[in-house]
């Protein structure tokens, strides 16, 4: 993602609307405002303007008669100008508010992109520039993405906590508590040969660590994703020869799984990354898994083992994509689950018009060969993946992974001593676990250095008295 040039993109949702917003950020924004909108200066202001459509400069009204009759007339709009550094990105920024006709929006964006030195912004690039220019913290930038993807009030509240800094302040308070605890434990290591010096009592340390661990558990929610998985996992399930592998390849856009008319061809769990952001704004990357077909009995020992593996992956998956070419979706042929489930009638070009879903649920008819409804299915997978996180939890995988690791190290620290003992039996082991917890939490709050620990030692534990 290069910086220093000028970028432009539509900043409002796609589709027809009353108004649309196009954002331009970079050093050429004042020149664009002058040459295309005839704005002589670039103050922080909102002004009506006329945008000349096309790549030429602005033509005064007196010379309009000499212009080509095929040239479109200037477009009335509102121009919002933000000189650097007083803008969202910290760069010169021009925002154009215009009628939300998709064809008109595309024409205006093409006019901007036709200028030398102006390019289409990459996903998240405006927020990335705001972060690089010190206008946003990393957590606030992540909060923007989470707010876009939020589907419930709890998820929106979690995004707001990232954006307003309250979530960061909550984690920093925990980091401060752990830093103080670690400083006192390490001070105890230095005085381990003096029985009358106890920098922190085990009961006090246990209370401190338990409070941090419990609050991290509350943020994570009742069922956090395993620490070794940083993205939602969606699995293709169904009977043998249901078209799962063909659909797997079609969703990925490349041949990855072996496809055959013979049952039992898939003998392993094939996992690949699938980026859903081009199809669902705000969505991210998931892990898509192709599994062996589930039947009454395995064809042979290898197929039986493959089905056992498939049921294990189903148990740990976040989203189930139930494939059935008959469209009946009989519950008896499918493992009972309360996970988000997408019913897909595969081979829809061959399925009977009279096929009905026995479960009464919604069904997406898909043909992987001609890509019928694949875009709809990708959006459904993105929606279901967003529902997979526990309600109210901070659903960003990076945060969940760091906090889950922190909680694990805190549990190890708590198990290294008896809270009712007069002193820590092995303060070195307790200190090592606390340091690991701080390192994990430091991924979100910033690392804690030796200077921080020394400051805590001399402020919280007066060595000289």
Describe it for me?
With 465 residues, the chain is of the alpha/beta class. Helices cover 39% and strands 15% of the residues. The strands form 2 sheets. A 6-stranded mixed sheet has the order 3-4-5-2-1-6, with helices on one face. A 6-stranded mixed sheet has the order 8-9-7-10-11-12, with helices on both faces. A hairpin with a 6-residue loop joins strand 1 and strand 2 (17-25). It is flat, with a radius of gyration of 29 Å. The two termini are 56 Å apart. Residues 58-68, 224-228, 353-360, 390-394 and 460-465 have low confidence and may be disordered.
SS summary, helix count? 13
| Low-confidence regions | 58-68, 224-228, 353-360, 390-394, 460-465
Q: What is the percentage of strand-forming residues?
A: 15-25%
Q: Rough shape?
A: flat
- Span of the ends, CA to CA: 56 Å
Report the count of strand segments.
12
Taking all Cα atoms into account, the compactness measure Rg is 29 Å
How many strands, which pairing sense, and closed or not: the largest β-sheet? Answer: 6 strands, mixed
Q: Strand order within the widest sheet? A: 3-4-5-2-1-6
């Amino acid at each position: 993602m290069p910086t220093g040039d000028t970028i432009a993109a539509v900043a409002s949702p796609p589709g027809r609307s009353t108004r649309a917003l196009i954002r331009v950020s970079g050093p050429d924004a004042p020149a664009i405002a002058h040459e295309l909108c005839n704005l002589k200066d670039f103050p922080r202001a909102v002004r009506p303007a006329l945008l000349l459509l096309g790549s030429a400069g602005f033509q005064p009204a007196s010379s309009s008669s000499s212009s080509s009759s095929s040239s479109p007339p200037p477009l009335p709009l509102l121009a919002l100008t933000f000189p650097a550094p007083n803008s969202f990105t910290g760069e010169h920024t021009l925002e154009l508010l215009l009628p939300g006709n998709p064809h008109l929006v595309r024409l205006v964006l093409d006019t901007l992109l036709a200028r030398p030195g102006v390019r289409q912004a990459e996903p998240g690039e405006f927020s990335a520039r705001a972060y690089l220019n010190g206008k946003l913290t990393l957590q606030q930038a992540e909060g923007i993405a989470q707010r876009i993807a939020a589907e419930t009030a709890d998820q929106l509240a979690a995004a707001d906590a990232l954006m307003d800094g309250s979530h960061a302040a909550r984690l920093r308070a925990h980091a401060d508590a752990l830093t103080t605890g670690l400083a006192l434990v390490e001070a105890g290591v230095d005085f381990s040969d003096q029985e009358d010096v106890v920098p922190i009592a085990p009961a006090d340390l246990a209370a401190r660590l338990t409070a941090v661990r419990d609050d991290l558990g509350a943020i994570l929610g009742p069922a956090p994703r395993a620490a070794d998985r940083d993205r939602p996992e969606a699995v293709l399930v169904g009977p043998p020869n249901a078209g799962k592998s063909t659909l797997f390849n079609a969703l990925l856009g490349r041949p990855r799984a072996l496809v055959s008319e013979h049952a039992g061809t898939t003998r392993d769990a094939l996992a690949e990354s699938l980026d859903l952001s081009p199809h669902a704004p705000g969505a991210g990357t998931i892990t898509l898994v192709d599994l062996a077909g589930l039947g009454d009995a395995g064809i042979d020992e290898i197929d039986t083992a493959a089905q056992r593996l498939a049921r294990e992956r189903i148990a740990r998956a976040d989203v189930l994509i139930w494939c059935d070419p008959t469209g009946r979706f009989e519950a008896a042929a499918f493992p009972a689950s309360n996970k988000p489930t997408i019913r897909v009638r595969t081979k829809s070009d061959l399925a009977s018009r009279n096929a009905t879903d026995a479960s009464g649920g919604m069904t997406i008819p898909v043909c992987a060969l001609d890509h019928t409804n694949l875009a709809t299915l990708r959006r459904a997978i993105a929606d279901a993946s967003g529902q997979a996180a526990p309600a109210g939890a901070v659903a960003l995988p990076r945060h969940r992974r760091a906090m889950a690791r922190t909680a694990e190290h805190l549990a190890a620290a708590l198990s290294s001593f008896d809270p009712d003992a007069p002193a820590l039996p092995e303060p070195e082991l307790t200190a090592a676990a606390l340091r690991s917890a701080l390192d994990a939490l430091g991924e979100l709050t910033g690392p804690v250095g030796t200077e921080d620990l020394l400051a805590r030692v001399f402020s919280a534990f007066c060595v000289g008295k």
